[in-house]
Amino acid sequence: MAATEPHASLPLPDFTAPVKLLFVVAPYYRDIADNLIAGAATVAQSAGATHDIVEVPGALEIPTAVRLAQLRANYDGFVALGCVIRGETTHYDTVCNDSSRGLMLLGLDGALIGNGILTVENRDQAEVRADPGRMDKGGGAAAAALHLIALARRWAAPRGGVGFRTGPAGAEFRIAGDGGHRA
């Protein structure tokens, strides 16, 4: 059982500039969603980040809401929160696969997203994973978004160390930067 397997967690990054997250929540199972939000909010606060919350009808709408916010609002990163519990039809597979695929495509296109959409077999699994005192998948999703924000800031502009950038016509040139790891 994966829940009992030991795993490593990275320490939260340090930020020198404010961080603002958007939690995009599908509250279909309200109690599960509330626990995911609580875990994500605690982690965000621990890193000094602020957050806003928007709700959408279901997990399939989360990627669209993230994309709208990415285009029309000013957030550093996004935390997708929701729960899909297997039912009697193949709709479960569609919702799980398409919501995950949508978030992945947005991430590959530059959106900084922590995916906290639970995909579980039953309510008991959802409750354990959402509970901030147990598996805290909401907190884990917020931490993932924060780590991606830190990486994006680290690689956004030179700060005194040496690196390479691609210039016009694909020519590489050296840049100087301090190589610092603070975001």
TrEMBL record:
It catalyses: (2S)-2-hydroxy-3-oxobutyl phosphate + 5-amino-6-(D-ribitylamino)uracil = 6,7-dimethyl-8-(1-D-ribityl)lumazine + phosphate + 2 H2O + H(+). GO terms for molecular function: 6,7-dimethyl-8-ribityllumazine synthase activity. The active site is at H91. It holds the Pfam family DMRL_synthase. Keywords: Riboflavin biosynthesis, Transferase. Its EC number is 2.5.1.78. Coiled coil: none annotated. GO terms for cellular component: cytosol; riboflavin synthase complex. Transmembrane segments: none annotated. GO terms for biological process: riboflavin biosynthetic process. (2S)-2-hydroxy-3-oxobutyl phosphate binds at E88, T89, R129. InterPro entries: LS, LS/RS, LS/RS_sf. Belongs to the DMRL synthase family. NCBIfam families: lumazine-synth, PRK00061.2-2. Catalyzes the formation of 6,7-dimethyl-8-ribityllumazine by condensation of 5-amino-6-(D-ribitylamino)uracil with 3,4-dihydroxy-2-butanone 4-phosphate. This is the penultimate step in the biosynthesis of riboflavin. This is 6,7-dimethyl-8-ribityllumazine synthase. It comes from Rhodobaculum claviforme. The gene is ribH.
